[in-house]
Design brief:
- Belongs to the FAD-binding oxidoreductase/transferase type 4 family.
- It is built from 18 helices and 17 strands.
- The chain is an alpha+beta fold and 507 residues long.
- The protein has 4 domains: 108 residues, Uridine Diphospho-n-acetylenolpyruvylglucosamine Reductase, domain 2; 116 residues, 2-Layer Sandwich (Uridine Diphospho-n-acetylenolpyruvylglucosamine Reductase, domain 3), CATH 3.30.465.10; 115 residues, Alpha-Beta Plaits (2-Layer Sandwich), CATH 3.30.70; 91 residues, Alpha-Beta Plaits (2-Layer Sandwich), CATH 3.30.70.2740.
- The strands form 3 sheets. An 8-stranded mixed β-sheet has the order 1-14-11-13-12-16-17-15, with helices on both faces.
- A hairpin with a 5-residue loop joins β8 and β9.
- The relative contact order is 0.13.
- The chain binds flavin-adenine dinucleotide (FAD), (2R)-2-hydroxypentanedioic acid and zinc ion.
- The site of flavin-adenine dinucleotide has 38 residues, from β4, α6, β10 and α14.
Length: 507
């Protein structure tokens, strides 16, 4: 029988990781040359001063730190200027000027991206949309939200919660990332299994192109087959095709009955059996199926104040969420599923959250994995789609390779701490993480292109949800063929011929 879950005080702030070393400049750590862009002059700054108030123009070194360094402390740029427009019109004026002057620009949201896409590589101007932070409208009947791009994801969700709806995307960085940022990266998150991709839920976008043209495609219609669906090009374009300033998105009704169970399993085969069973037996109420290996759990335990949800240790754990509108019905379904899964020895141990605090605690335990894995110094991240039967083999093979190369150990001279795997297994999406004490070229060479070649051989994707950014700019060929890449380059050329938007990234 499943035990109930003792309430613990697991609360912990999602503080940015502490800095115990300075991050090297990306331009020095990687082989990349500055493009033929103009350099910022005093008269450019004067122009920006004529359209923005002084407090929305940052030039002070200290003020620039946050915008020049990424969340993983892996990439650092040397931008001298951050602009924080408050209106779409101001974004347009800024881009028009930059395009005419040939000044490179990096659009930035909450700066939580995990592929170095939001950070300048050299001295690009950072265009932060943080001040475009207003909800524009909400339709109570259809659930359609229209919002500025800089609204923080959690705030957008809180807003629609007040009307009985839920934002159709959730992820661990929700307290910092923006609605525009998640659209620009086509983030997947924790409930894609239930609510689908942003390519389906986003109904319209307002985008400013590199030359300052404002494209108003902010439709609030569910069905609209008039012409090419151009907004799709910008979803997942990571700031390379335009700056998203407004988003229209369909929000489903907020579930009133939610259950979360946390289970221990003996093998990845059992994880797959549990998934098949959950789909069949929980059916329409299944809203998340997350898996994590024991290595990732040990690291969360080590670096947070939290205790493991299960006292015994198992090779794998699964977090299952059900969401529906009839508590009794959902409870009965979950109970039957869990009883069957234990009788059939698919699951060996587990807990079910008894109230909303315990639900939040279990989710927090899952959501803190990325932060905990970075606490030792740094982390190499690979966010991949792989056919489920082979999915965990990648972690096993990478671990073996690193051990054989002699780079893994418990003492400070060894760069690699461990190899961990977790992710949205319900979506076939694995997060392979290699936490390190310091970033090290030898380790990087052992991992790349090995990981990408491995993925290509099983016809997987080298980027399931985080995007290409700077990290994977040279590797798209492992997942897309020449013809597709050439079409993509054509689109980029058409929309941003001078390539001022987010250079050195993507393709
Ligand atoms: P940024 O990091 O600022 O930017 C990301 C990219 O989008 C950059 O290339 C930038 O140029 C571009 N961009 C940002 N805003 C705009 C805009 N308005 N117009 C045009 N381009 C823009 N991702 C997932 O898919 N699933 C997860 O479960 C998930 N969990 C995460 C958990 C944590 C703890 C962290 C730190 C990150 C996680 N991510 C996840 C990564 C994810 O990509 C980001 O959190 C989020 O999508 C980025 O939003 P942001 O506003 O921070 O964008
Ligand atoms: C998650 O699922 C995020 O928690 C982050 O996508 C994954 O850090 C990672 O590798
Ligand atoms: Zn993820």
């Amino acid at each position: 029988m499943l035990r109930s879950f003792a309430t613990r005080n697991l609360l912990r702030s999602f503080a940015r990781q502490s800095r115990n070393y300075s991050v090297k400049l990306t331009s020095e750590s990687y082989d990349v040359k500055r493009g033929n862009y103009a350099s910022l002059t005093e008269s450019d700054v004067q122009y920006f001063n004529s359209i923005l108030s002084a407090n929305n123009i940052l030039q002070d070194k200290e003020d620039l730190l946050f915008y020049n360094e990424d969340w993983m402390r892996k990439y650092r740029g040397s931008s001298q200027l951050v602009l924080k427009p408050k209106t779409t019109e101001q974004v347009s004026q800024i881009l028009k000027h930059c395009n005419e002057r040939n000044l490179a620009v990096v659009p930035q949201g909450g700066n939580t991206g995990l592929v170095g896409g939001s950070i300048p590589v050299f001295d690009e101007i950072v265009l932060s949309v943080a001040n475009l932070n207003k909800v524009r409208s909400f339709d109570e009947v259809s659930g359609i939200l229209v919002t500025d791009a800089g609204v923080i994801l959690e705030n957008a969700d809180k807003f629609v919660e007040g009307h009985g709806y839920i934002f159709p995307l959730d992820l661990g960085a929700k307290g910092s990332c923006h609605v525009g940022g998640v659209v620009a990266t086509n983030a997947g998150g924790l409930r894609l299994l239930r609510y689908g991709s942003l390519h389906g839920t986003v109904l319209g976008l307002e985008v400013v192109l590199a030359d300052g043209t404002i494209v108003n495609n902010l439709s609030t219609l569910r069905k609209d087959n008039t012409g090419y669906d151009l907004k799709q090009l910008f979803i997942g374009s990571e700031g390379t095709l335009g700056v998203v300033t407004g988003v229209s998105i369909l929000c489903p009704p907020r579930p009133t009955a939610v259950n979360v169970a946390f289970l221990g399993l003996e093998s990845f085969e059992q994880v797959q059996r549990a998934f098949v069973k959950a789909k069949k037996e929980l059916g329409e109420v299944l809203s998340a199926f997350e898996c994590m290996d024991n290595t990732s759990q040990s690291i969360v335990e080590e670096h947070t104040d939290l205790s493991r949800p299960l006292s015994e240790q198992y090779p794998f754990y699964v977090l299952i969420e059900t969401s529906g509108s009839n508590k009794e019905h959902d409870d009965a379904k979950l109970e039957t599923f869990l009883e069957n899964a234990m009788t059939e020895e698919i699951v060996v141990d587990g807990v079910v959250a008894q109230d909303s605090t315990e639900i939040a605690n279990l989710w927090q335990w899952r959501e803190l994995i990325p932060e905990a894995l970075g606490k030792g110094g740094g982390v190499y991240k690979y966010d991949v789609s792989i056919p489920l039967p082979q999915l965990y083999d990648l972690v096993v093979d990478v671990n073996k390779r690193l051990i054989e190369a002699g780079v893994v150990g418990d003492t400070p001279e060894y760069p690699v701490i461990a190899t961990a795997g977790y992710g949205h297994i319900g979506d076939g999406n694995l997060h392979l993480n290699v936490p390190v004490r310091f970033y090290d070229k030898k380790v990087e060479k052992l991992l790349e292109p090995f990981v990408y070649e491995w993925i290509s051989k099983v016809s997987g994707s080298i980027s399931a949800e985080h995007g290409l950014g700077f990290a994977k700019r040279n590797y798209i060929g492992y997942s897309k063929d020449e013809q597709l890449i050439s079409l993509m380059k054509g689109v980029k050329n058409m929309l941003d011929p001078k390539k001022i938007l987010n250079p050195y990234k993507y393709i």
